[in-house]
Amino acid sequence: xxxxxxxxxxxxxxxxxxxxxxxxxxxxxxxxxxxxxxxxxxxxxxxxxxxxxxxxxxxxxxxxxxxxxxxxxxxxxxxxxxxxxxxxxxxxxxxxxxxxxxxxxxxxxxxxxxxxxxxxxxxxxxxxxxxxxxxxxxxxxxxxxxxxxxxxxxxxxxxxxxxxxxxxxxxxxxxxxxxxxxxxxxxxxxxxxxxxxxxxxxxxxxxxxxxxxxxxxxxxxxxxxxxxxxxxxxxxxxxxxxxxxxxxxxxxxxxxxxxxxxxxxxxxxxxxxxxxxxxxxxxxxxxxxxxxxxxxxxxxxxxxxxxxxxx
Length: 311
Description:
16-stranded antiparallel β-sheet, 6 helices, 29% helix, cell membrane, Type II secretion system protein N, T2SS_protein-GspN, cell inner membrane
C-alpha cells in the first residue's frame, strides 16, 4: 500500500511540472515561442547601422563643405590672373602672381595678344584686395609707380553680363610710361613713344552683354610730352583720347591735340565688332621736314596729311 502511494505522488509531481512548468508558464510559451531574442537583436542591429550610415553621410557632407570653403578662401592668385588674361584676349597679363584671389600681387604686363612677341611690364608690383559686395565684389588696386593712391573698381556679374565701375576719385586716376604701349604691337612698337600716359575720369562704367560693351560716363587718356626716336625733335606734343557714351549707347572715341608739332585728330566707335576709327596726322607749321618720315609711318600718305584708319 505504501508503495502505491509513493508511485501516485511521483506521478502527480511530474504532471504538475508538465502542466505548469513547461506548458503554461515555461520558456516554450513566454521565452522562445512568443518573444524570440533573434527578432529583438535584428531590430537593434538595424537601428545601429542606420545611425552609423547617418553619421557617415554627415561626415562626408562636412568634409565636402570644408573643402569648398578652403578652395574659396585660399583660391590662388593664378586663378585671377587666368581670368584677366582670358577676358582681355591675352593683352593684359598678371605675371608672377602671388597670394590669393582675395589678397595678392603681380607684375602688370601689356602684350599684343596670342602669338605676339611684344610685351611691356610695369615697374614694381600691382597689389589688389577683393571683397564681396552685394551681388558682386569691390577690387582695390595699389601700385606705387602708377596709381594715384588706392583705386577702386566695383565688379558685378549676372546672367551673360558683367559690369565694371570705376569708383570716382579726385584728380587723375593712373599714369604709366608711354613706352607701355609698345607691348601692344604695331604701330606702337615702331613709334617707341616716350612720355607719360595719364588716365582721369569723373566716373566710368563698362557693361558687357553678349559680347557688346556699353559705356556710361567718361574717361580721358592724355599722352603728355610724347616723343619718338624716329624724329629729330625733342617732343612731338601732347594729345587726348576721350571715351564716352553717345545718345545711341555706343562708345564714342575722339582724338585731339592739346599742343605740339604733330597735329592729330579723329573720331570713331567702339562696338561689338571692335574699334572703328578714322583720323589724320599733319605737321605743324615749320615742322614739315622734321615730321615727313613719321607721317609716312603713321598712316596712308595723302599729300600733306597722313590718313589713320583702324577697323
